[in-house]
Amino acid sequence: MLANSDCTVYLFDKQTEGFVRKYAEKVYWCENKSGSIVKSGMQTSDSTRVYFYDDNAPKTPAKDMLVRGKCEFEFDNQTPQSISESMKIFRAEYDFVTVMSIDDYMFGGLPHMEVSVK
To answer: How far is it, in rounded angstroms, from Cα 97 to Cα 58?
Structure first.
């Protein structure tokens, strides 16, 4: 099991349309930076994958968010206005990524969840 980081997972809550914070220890955070030069200029194709080895993995692509390391920010999920205000603060203060896809490999000798983020 490879592990180089911890991360905070913000799970989308369908009932409140807010976010619930969970902390995930021992994840493998893998960032790939690449680019190519074309006639119109530089094209980048960066990608990030996060490997989870327990049930703290995100559940909802395009809604759940991750922050590398431990993040203490809590969303105020009381009203739609408070959720919106919390999101503005969160976007301004934290470097986060959004879950794009989740691949379940929770079987075999190295069970894990592979999460692609952007």
So the answer is: 12
Q: Which two tokens stand for residue 40?
A: 């119109």
Q: Give me the phi and psi of 91, to 5 degrees please.
A: -65, -35
CB-based contact 79:87 (threshold 8 Å): no
Contact between 74 and 21 (Cβ < 8 Å) = yes
pLDDT given at position 114: 96
CA distance 9 to 111: 19
**pLDDT for the residue 38:** 81
Which pTM value belongs to this model?
A: 0.88
What's the CA dihedral at 104, 106, 108, 112 to 10 degrees?
80
